[in-house]
C-alpha cells in the first residue's frame, strides 16, 4: 500500500507489469492491501470479495454463501474497484491519480 496525492493505493506487481487499485474494497471498505494477491486477483480480507487488478472488475462480491451472499448483493450491488494508470519512469514506479 502506498499513498499517492492523499489516496491509499495498492500497488501490485504481476509478472513484469505493475497495477494500482484503491486500497478500500467497495463492498465493505476492507483494506485490500492486507488481502492476498494470486495472479491478477486481489482478495479482500474482510468478506472475500475479489477483484482483477488489471481492470478493477469484481470477480466475486463476497465469500459468504446462501442468504448472506444474497443479502450482501442487495445491500451493496457488485462494483468494480477503482484502478489507476501505472508506468515506469527512470527506474521509478509512477501512479497516475486523478482528483475529482
Protein architecture, described:
The chain is mainly beta and 100 residues long. It has a single domain, classed as Rieske Iron-sulfur Protein. It is 10% helix and 41% strand. The protein is built from one helix and nine strands. The chain has one helix spanning 66-75, and strands at 2-4, 7-14, 17-22, 36-38, 41-43, 50-52, 58-60, 83-89, 92-96. It has a five-stranded antiparallel β-sheet with strand order 1-2-3-8-9, with no helix packed on it. Strands 4-5-6-7 form a four-stranded antiparallel β-sheet, with no helix packed on it. A hairpin with a 2-residue loop joins strand 2 (7-14) and strand 3 (17-22). The longest helix is centred in the last third of the chain and has 10 residues, at 66-75. The radius of gyration is 14 Å and the shape is elongated. The mean pLDDT is 88.
Would you kindly provide a brief summary of this structure?
The protein has 100 residues and is mainly β. It has one helix at residues 66-75; strands at 2-4, 7-14, 17-22, 36-38, 41-43, 50-52, 58-60, 83-89, 92-96. The longest helix has 10 residues, at 66-75.
What labels describe this entry?
single chain; 100 residues; mainly beta; five-stranded antiparallel β-sheet; four-stranded antiparallel β-sheet; 1 helix; 41% strand
Task: Please render the helix and strand layout as text.
Elements: E1 2-4, E2 7-14, E3 17-22, E4 36-38, E5 41-43, E6 50-52, E7 58-60, H1 66-75, E8 83-89, E9 92-96
Antiparallel strand pairs: 1-2, 2-3, 3-8, 4-5, 5-6, 6-7, 8-9
